[in-house]
């Protein structure tokens, strides 16, 4: 059997490292075409040597010399900056992991889809910013899009073999993040260190803080709407502190199919890597008798306004998702730089959306990579102004 040709965009991050771990366990099944990373070129070079990658790229031109030095003598080709990232995306992998964080992951993912590859999508920002463009590109190129976000992988698995017309609702669960039980007054004083301590999942810093603000869940609601083509009013969020049930699908006959698993991203990554087959994965097997009980509660949209904003964004459509995501990314930068309070991130996002909606034209704009990136840049600029105005 020929080996599956793999590329990983964002190899040095949390999802990337877990993907490398799974691939390294089965070298007879995989051939590594390209790896990309950002600042962590030492790890990127180590991964490339370990997996025998053919090409390696860092997004940052100034890191090129350090990457070349770290790969010296390996025979592995490398490059730095936008042209090198384009080359990594152009190399002919059959299966590509999209695990760059933020809107920076959109373009490489689209490039992989344009080549007709199977794109395993951890980068939820791609669907939030440009869902229609991603799906149209995949359809035109006969490419396959697979979910990697744990909730969406769970929904995908629960839907397999089921008639789509029978789906009544999709329920995605949320741990509630670091501040599940904090009051608004407590969250107002929260530090980046406190927000970056997730109770259950080990993830990159940005998504962990997005979990604490529920921006992560609000992005996942939009991701559910885009990926599965389901109406927003059929998507529910359920707080589930144990993070063992990842999602549920409700059918017209009253059945509710739940997907359970330990909070270990190697399940969802491995499912996408092996799809449409299933192979054994190195994840813990749940002992439900020992766990004993599972808890569920409705989310509090007053303490977590991001959930309400996501519904407004879906109702407005078009480029609203790109604005929402970019304003959120800029607000998170402000929080990390201690220029903005935790609770003010949603205030900034709401203000930027209001500004850009009042100007008009977002909802029905045609979607291309250029106008998504233009809306993203304008939203970041406006978010910066709103943040400066609050200081
Ligand atoms: P990390 O922050 O851990 O990793 C991000 C990766 O992207 C790193 O390889 C980083 O490189 C690279 N990167 C950062 N900025 C850029 C840029 N401007 N251009 C190119 N590459 C860049 O993130 P995660 O792995 O946690 O998350 C990745 C994606 O997966 C996100 O979209 C997240 O929402 C999603 N996701 C993550 C989950 C998780 O468990 N972590 C779960 C579900 C979804 P370097 O570090 O070398 O600078
Ligand atoms: Mg998730």
From TrEMBL:
What GO annotations for molecular function exist for this entry? 1-deoxy-D-xylulose-5-phosphate reductoisomerase activity; isomerase activity; manganese ion binding; NADPH binding
Q: Which UniProt keywords apply?
A: Isomerase, Isoprene biosynthesis, Magnesium, Manganese, Metal-binding, NADP, Oxidoreductase
Gene3D superfamilies of this UniProt entry? 1.10.1740.10, NAD(P)-binding Rossmann-like Domain (3.40.50.720)
For activity, the cofactor(s) needed are: Mg(2+); Mn(2+)
Return the broad EC class: oxidoreductase
Q: Which residues form the 1-deoxy-D-xylulose 5-phosphate reductoisomerase N-terminal domain?
A: 6-131
Question: Per the record, what are the reactions this protein catalyses?
Answer: 2-C-methyl-D-erythritol 4-phosphate + NADP(+) = 1-deoxy-D-xylulose 5-phosphate + NADPH + H(+)
Chain's role: Catalyzes the NADPH-dependent rearrangement and reduction of 1-deoxy-D-xylulose-5-phosphate (DXP) to 2-C-methyl-D-erythritol 4-phosphate (MEP).
Protein name, UniProt field: 1-deoxy-D-xylulose 5-phosphate reductoisomerase
> Where is the organism placed in the taxonomic lineage, from the top?
Bacteria, Pseudomonadati, Pseudomonadota, Alphaproteobacteria, Rhodobacterales
The gene behind this protein is dxr
């Amino acid at each position: 059997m020929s080996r599956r040709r793999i590329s990983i965009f964002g190899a040095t991050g949390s999802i990337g490292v877990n993907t490398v771990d799974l691939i390294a366990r089965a070298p007879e099944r995989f051939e590594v075409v390209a790896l990309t990373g950002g600042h962590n070129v030492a790890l990127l070079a180590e991964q490339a040597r370990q997996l025998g990658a053919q090409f390696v790229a860092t997004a940052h031109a100034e890191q090129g010399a350090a990457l070349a030095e770290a790969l010296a003598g390996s025979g592995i080709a490398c490059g730095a900056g936008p042209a090198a990232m384009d080359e990594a995306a152009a190399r002919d992998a059959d299966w590509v992991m999209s695990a760059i964080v933020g809107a920076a992951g959109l373009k490489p993912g689209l490039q992989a889809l344009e080549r007709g590859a199977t794109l395993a999508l951890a980068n939820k920002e791609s669907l939030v910013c440009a869902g229609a463009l991603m799906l149209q590109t995949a359809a035109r190129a006969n490419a396959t899009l697979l979910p990697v976000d744990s909730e969406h992988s769970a929904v995908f698995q629960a839907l397999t073999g089921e008639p789509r017309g029978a789906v009544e609702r999709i329920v995605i669960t949320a741990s509630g993040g670091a501040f599940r039980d904090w009051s608004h007054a407590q969250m107002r004083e929260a530090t980046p260190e406190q927000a970056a301590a997730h109770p259950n999942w080990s993830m990159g810093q940005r998504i962990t803080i997005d979990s604490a603000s529920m921006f992560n869940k609000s992005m996942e609601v939009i991701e559910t709407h885009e990926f599965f083509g389901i109406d927003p009013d059929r998507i529910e969020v359920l707080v589930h502190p144990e993070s063992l049930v990842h999602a549920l699908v409700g059918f017209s006959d009253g059945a509710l199919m739940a997907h359970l698993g330990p909070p270990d991203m190697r399940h969802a990554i491995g499912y996408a890597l092996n799809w449409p087959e299933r192979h054994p994965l190195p994840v813990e097997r749940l002992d439900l008798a020992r766990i004993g009980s599972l808890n569920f509660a409705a989310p509090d949209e007053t303490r977590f306004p991001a959930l309400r904003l996501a519904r407004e964004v879906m109702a407005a459509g078009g480029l609203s998702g790109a604005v929402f995501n970019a304003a959120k990314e800029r607000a998170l930068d402000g929080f990390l730089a201690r220029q903005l309070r935790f609770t003010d991130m949603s205030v900034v996002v709401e203000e930027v959306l209001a500004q850009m909606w009042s100007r008009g034209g977002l909802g029905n704009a045609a979607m291309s990579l250029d106008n998504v990136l233009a809306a993203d840049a304008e939203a970041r600029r406006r978010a910066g102004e709103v943040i400066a105005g609050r200081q």
